[in-house]
């Protein structure tokens, strides 16, 4: 993978500051970025009405409670429709 020189320098600087190897830092940054990307995409789908909050949480790889927190953090209004009620009822009778 090719990276701009300024990005490489930033990674090297952060690596020294954190006291960890560059490869370890890059894996950490990629993992965190991928998690944030999944959450962002799932919350966008929810905002657009393309999925329920339960499904958005599943897509994002987070719990329903964490999804509620993400809605709050991103100022996305909470919707609760018939599909959500049916999912909740199904879960409750398990």
**What is the overall pLDDT average?**
93
Number of strands: 0
Major beta-sheet overview: none
Which radius of gyration do the C-alpha atoms yield?
A: 18 Å
Tell me roughly what share of residues is in helical segments.
over 70%
Distance between the termini: 47 Å
- The ordered string of helix (H) and strand (E) elements is HHHHH
Low-confidence stretches: none
Structural class: mainly alpha
Can you count the helices? 5
- Shape, please? elongated
Q: How many structural domains? A: 1
The amount of beta strand, in percent, is under 5%
What do these coordinates show?
The chain has 94 residues and is an all-alpha fold. It has one domain. It contains 5 helices and no strands. The protein has helices at 5-18, 22-47, 53-60, 64-73, 82-92. The mean pLDDT is 93.
Features:
single chain; 94 residues; elongated; mainly alpha
SSE inventory with pairings:
Layout: H1 5-18, H2 22-47, H3 53-60, H4 64-73, H5 82-92
Brief summary of the model shown:
This protein is mainly alpha-helical. The protein contains 5 helices and no strands. It starts with a helix and ends with a helix.
């Amino acid at each position: 993978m090719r990276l701009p020189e300024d990005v490489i320098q930033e990674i090297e600087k952060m690596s020294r500051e954190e006291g960890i190897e560059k490869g370890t830092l890059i894996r950490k940054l990629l993992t965190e970025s991928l998690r944030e990307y999944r959450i962002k995409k799932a919350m966008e789908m929810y905002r657009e009405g393309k999925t329920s909050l339960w499904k958005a949480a599943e897509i994002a790889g987070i719990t329903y409670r964490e999804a509620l927190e993400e809605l709050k953090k991103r100022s996305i209004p909470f919707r609760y429709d018939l599909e959500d009620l049916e999912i909740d009822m199904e879960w409750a009778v398990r």
